[in-house]
């Protein structure tokens, strides 16, 4: 062991488990790639101000959870706590939103950082795959994104997740609702922090998980009873499209999210096998965000799915992904000349697309065969002095133990044929 450990709230991805993470990322990305979303990658850090304005000054993310730093040049930067603000910043900066190009559909995958209290499923460094459809106000996009997330989970074999859906209204109806909610909340028996929240972001109080607070919220006014006609029609259309696509959802009038930029459609995917940190993904419409960060009006919608928690959900359901074998053939040389010959063959096999590995370090037969077994390979390719003299190598099926001698110049073709 070294003197150092991974920082608190973080963990390392190591083989063989890390293969599941890659597969989850790939499974979430696959439906997006098929649906016109292009890959975007932004820096791991941005100006603090972008998140303060974009995510919201009063949110936990900005007030408590950001990793900030001042550069030697005096710039105030933050490790990114989420993806949307950066992706929108990048799209605006590159002028992707020029006329005729809307919606701009983008997807991303990467690491995010929040200084949270670590627990199972909640880390300080975590991984998300996200998608954004920028610049078009169309309920079809909201439905499309939700369907793509659902299809991603289903393609992984997950069944124990639920989709919670709500609308947070827009700049016409939300302020009216906000005022009604504030009036209601001011009449409750709440602690000082929560009372402060009533002024800054009253909707977040609805999200308070404490039993003492939830009990008092029973008669709280609900956004859905205050939606304006446009928001109502928009929301009904999203619901109808989801139903048509065979995606079940639960209306959750209490669903608000930890970021200020959401308008209208808001949703969360929760998994019941995960305990307290049950949200495996979430998102919504953010029609005002572009203007909040200095851009033109660009109504948009997006989501981010948590890779770490999706992996935990797979474990909770006991789903084993069918992963391509890391190694298909393991070569075992006995002697220096055999090592050179097998190195050549292994190189050629790899170039032909076969996942091949070799025993290194002059291992004896017994140890080398143990490595072959551990690699999970289907075949071992053995080469000793007598084989070399005869111009053959021994291809051994590691499951059945059957072995056949193959002429050296036929090995690549035969192995390929056996594996396909
Ligand atoms: P959010 O932007 O907070 O809605 O996050 C979107 C998704 O990312 C959540 O549904 C989680 O699956 C995942 N996520 C957010 N924060 C964390 C965290 N601290 N640790 C692990 N996963 C997280």
Automatic annotation (TrEMBL):
PROSITE patterns: AA_TRNA_LIGASE_II. It is an enzyme of class 6 (ligase). The gene is hisS. HAMAP family: His_tRNA_synth. This is Histidine--tRNA ligase. Its EC number is 6.1.1.21. GO terms for molecular function: ATP binding; histidine-tRNA ligase activity. It is found in: Cytoplasm. Belongs to the class-II aminoacyl-tRNA synthetase family. L-histidine binds at residues 82-84, 114, 128, 132, 257, 261-262. One of its GO terms (biological process) is histidyl-tRNA aminoacylation.
